[in-house]
Design brief:
alpha+beta; four-stranded antiparallel β-sheet; 10 strands; 28% helix
């Protein structure tokens, strides 16, 4: 074997890199992308911000604002704007909401009144042992985020 035949040619390297690139382009979308702890916290912050904005809108406009909670779809819809917050399917979305509010059925909503009060409720976002609760106080209408351990 001569020394000229012992090396790798530029064409061989280019072909190997092309094959690896094609395999990466095919397989990379198949790798599951799970929600990280920081992203879970970001979803909780987004949900709390939406609820706070609806409370502020109720006070500003002096009207009732109802934020709709879709626990099965993992979404929260603003009653004052067209904003919505959704979470991916790998996050467990639970909501504990009142059955009635102000002597009327609540229908999966958290209502904010013109004086800042609300009917209250809790939204829990959990993923593999970590989680956050977004709590709406019925008396003050305040919105808090509390870390919690998943059950």
């Amino acid at each position: 074997m001569s020394s000229a035949e012992a090396g790798v040619t530029l064409i061989e390297i280019t072909c190997a890199l092309a094959i690896l690139s094609i395999l990466a382009a095919i397989l990379l979308p198949l790798v599951p992308r799970e929600t990280s702890r920081s992203r879970l916290e970001a979803y909780a912050l987004e949900a709390a911000a939406l609820l706070k904005a609806d409370r502020a809108a109720a006070i500003r406009t002096r009207t009732l604002v109802a934020t709709r909670i879709d626990a099965t779809g993992g979404s929260i819809f603003s009653g004052a704007s067209r904003r919505a917050v959704g979470v991916p399917n790998d996050v467990v979305f639970d909501a504990l909401l009142p059955e009635s509010c102000n002597d009327r059925p609540a229908f999966s909503t958290i209502c904010f009144f013109s004086n800042g009060m609300s009917c209250g409720g809790t939204i829990a976002l959990t993923k593999r042992g970590i989680g956050y609760e977004i709590r709406v106080n019925w008396l003050t209408g305040g919105v808090d985020i509390v870390p919690r351990a998943a059950l």
